[in-house]
Specification:
Blueprint: H1 2-31, H2 64-70, H3 73-79, H4 119-127, H5 133-141, H6 143-146, H7 160-172, H8 185-202
Helix pairs in contact: 3-7, 5-7
């Protein structure tokens, strides 16, 4: 009889412990229920407002007859150091990761002897007779974006003056560079004038859109 009572007490204690755990767990879930997020990830606050707004200015084609005459060749030589790890600029110099660039201005794209060009550059060569000033300028802004499939992984020169100065320096790294065209500032003037106007419109305050005779509400 005593053994039966003892086992009953043991089973009763175990059952009570299990019930207590269930009650505690249920209570914890009720108190600390997770709230599902509407959108996964982290929200990052970004400052907005007219004071911090910037407008992208269009990159108008340079007037090469004017720009090359006033370009900073020494600054272009300094910019060329960004390319020196992959390209050699000496007359008769070797190919490296990229082709030798002596005389590249005026040369047919993808044509330097001994270098294995990408298919993208080969296709471009079939459409473009020579590397003129404008095509080099556009290519330098972002090679991979300009020629799909090019091996050149360089991010590009984003500053307009860096590209112009580098091209002026590249022109000197040639035995027979392309002629500098006659100045024609009128060709670039309309596009250049449109860029500031677009920027001004993008950053104009909201009050500028109100009619001149608008009156505040009483």
């Amino acid at each position: 009889m005593k053994d039966e009572l003892r086992w009953n007490k043991i089973f009763g204690g175990l059952l009570g412990a299990v019930l207590l755990l269930l009650i505690v767990r249920q209570g914890a879930e009720m108190l600390f229920a997770p709230t599902p997020v509407k959108t996964p990830g982290y929200a990052i606050a970004v400052a907005t407002g007219d004071a911090g707004a910037t407008a992208e200015v269009a990159d108008t084609p340079p007037d090469w007859g004017t720009e090359l005459a006033k370009a900073d060749v020494a600054a272009g030589a300094a910019v060329s150091q960004k390319c020196a790890s992959c390209h050699n600029f000496a007359n008769g110099g070797p190919n490296q990761t990229g082709p030798n660039l002596w005389g590249v201005l005026g040369r047919k794209p993808g044509s330097h002897a001994g270098f294995a060009y990408s298919q993208g550059m080969t296709d471009f060569s079939g459409k473009q007779a020579a590397w003129d000033y404008q095509h080099v300028y556009e290519f330098l802004s972002g090679p991979a974006a300009y020629i799909n499939g090019t091996k050149m992984s360089f991010v590009g020169l984003k500053k307009r003056e860096d590209r112009i100065n580098l091209i002026a320096w590249l022109r000197q790294q040639s035995s027979s560079p392309p002629a500098i065209p006659a100045p024609n500032p009128a060709a670039a003037a309309p596009a250049a004038a449109a860029a500031p106007a677009a920027a001004a419109g993008a950053t104009a305050p909201a009050d500028a859109a109100k009619p001149a005779d608008a009156k505040p509400a009483a």
